[in-house]
Amino acid sequence: MHGRRRFRTTAVAVAAAALLGAGTLAGCSAGAERPPAASGTAPAPRAASSAPAAPSAPVTAPWLGSPASVAAVGDSITRAYDACGVLSDCPEASWATGTDPAVNSLALRLLGPGRVATHSWNLARSGSRMVELPEQMARAAAHRPALVTVMTGANDACRKTPDLMTPVEDFRFFFETALARLREESPASRVYVASVPDLMRLWSTGRLSPMAREVWKLGVCGSMLAEPQDDSPAAERRRARVQERVRAYNEVLAEVCAKDRLCRYDGGAVHAFRFGGGQLSPWDWFHPSRDGQARLAELAYRRITAG
Q1: DSSP string, 58-95
Q2: What is the pLDDT of residue 18?
Q3: Taking the CB of residue 269, how many other CB atoms lie within 10 A of it?
Q4: Residue 305: which pLDDT band, with cuts at 50, 70 and 90?
């Protein structure tokens, strides 16, 4: 018991020191948020009614349950941030394109270990939000992948305060723009879209852990996780706003994907998954651990290979 307590205390101290040294955690990634790459050409936000609809893929194109190549776009979850160590990406443990057999990523399942290095590309970036997806999708399209996986949106809700969350109409515009860019360059690519995780459930699980509470004080997803033991009406309203925004984001993902014949939404599977302590990073109690990444890979594989 005493050994376990000393381990937890040391882990908290190490994590806190590292996080403070790198800056406050922001959204789903640690450190100050980086702006999109200078080469990005994402258009300015506009009303959803004026957003371009993604062109439909050919009616005759079938869904491929066994694609020959995979490109992954999104944020720190797809980069397996904090899955292997403190404040670092661990792409080998990524649910989408990782090579770690313990995770058994989607690419490993679909392509086999001999083809992952040459037929999969992880183009996600820790800290990115939906505004960056069009540029990521353009980079993915250049590879002409048989399948593109999309997992983004958590950072749009995970801001310092709810007032800073991405407006739903902007979220829709950038997602539609991203699909349109893919279709311009790679019209036959299939697309798998994962839902945004349930941040409220994450809060209700992690708030019971002293270590999680200490790490979250450093700024992890402030809109939802700030003052995790505060049950005041104001705190409840704040969390409810974030929960509602995540729900709206997932509705957008489902609606836009449904308009594209070669796009499959996960049906809310990631949002419904109950991440427990074993599926969360021991460093931040927010990002998926290796086991959590394995669960995401399984959810994606089931949906992609369904009849």
Answers
A1: PTTPPP-SS-S-EEEEESTTTTTTTSSSTT---GGG-T
A2: 41
A3: 16
A4: very high
Phi, psi of 276 (to 5 degrees): -100, -175
Fill in the amino acid letter for 293.
Answer: Q
In the predicted model, is pLDDT for residue 23 greater than 50? Answer: no
Instruction: Kindly report which listed range (7-21, 54-68, 93-107) carries the lowest average pLDDT score.
Output: 7-21
The tokens describing 5, both together, are 């307590």
Count Cβ atoms below 10 Å from residue 118 Cβ, excluding itself. 9
**What is the rounded CA–CA span in Å between residue 59 and residue 61?**
6
Are 88 and 82 spatial neighbours (Cβ–Cβ below 8 Å)?
Answer: yes
What phi and psi, each to the nearest 5 degrees, are found at residue 120?
-145, 150
Strand order through the sheet with 147-151: 120-122, 70-74, 147-151, 190-193, 263-265
Is-contact 14 136, C-beta < 8 A? no
Q: What is the pTM of this model?
A: 0.84
Token pair 């450190």 in the structure block, residue: 31
CA distance 148 to 212: 33
Residues 187-204: tens digit of each pLDDT: 999 999 999 999 999 999
Three-state secondary-structure class, residue 145: coil
Whole-number average pLDDT of the chain: 85
Angle at 129 between CA 81 and CA 225, to 5 degrees: 65
Give the C-alpha separation, 150 to 265, whole Å.
9
**Whole-angstrom distance, CA of residue 180 vs CA of residue 94:** 26
> What is the predicted pLDDT for the residue at 94?
98
Q: What is the mean pLDDT of residues 105-124?
A: 97
What domains appear along the chain, each with residue ranges and CATH number?
Answer: 2-27+61-304 (3.40.50.1110)
SS3 254: helix
